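Researcher: Sequence of 2-dehydro-3-deoxy-phosphogluconate aldolase follows. Predict its structure.
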Amino acid sequence: MSSINEQLKALKVIPVIAIDNAEDIIPLGKVLAENGLPAAEITFRSEAAIDAIRLLRESQPDMLIGAGTVLNREQAIAAKDAGATFIVSPGFNPNTVKACQEIGIDIVPGVNNPSAVEAALEMGLTTLKFFPAEASGGINMVKSLLAPYTDIKLMPTGGINPANIKDYLAIPRVLACGGTWMVDKKLIEAGDWEELARLTREAVELVNP
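Model: Prediction complete. Tokens:
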């Protein structure tokens, strides 16, 4: 997990991608890599997810690729086989965590309360997704969760935008944030790679002042 943590910390923002046409990931991956953000979390919110992960791994072999919204063992195995570097889940499911540990892929499970944090710690996990970030209390809740649990690091996701991401990243032990604004689904579907490139550059500049 230390390698993933280092990459997350260096990137500061992870594009969270919902994609319906797997082929679109090839030009999108090129846009992200060429504009300073060689990372993607491809969510299992469409049937195209597995093919998109595979195509992105083939076209961008050095990219940090996460599989997001993974809800069960089968999805975790399929994501790893397709080339995902790590797994992200919206909540804490012990069965999914155990499956990832058994097949040897890092998982960043979702938490938003102390009980979920303690369940994650019980299974040896210290890098956690804080989700849904803004709806769960935002920055104040992040600080409240980090205070008693000095071993954990968080990746807030959900409601993160250009107006608040720097405030999250300013909190010690927030590794990175997940965001969707630089990979807007409508822009992907429209094939507006120029605008997506602009948004990506802006995101990189925003978190690396």
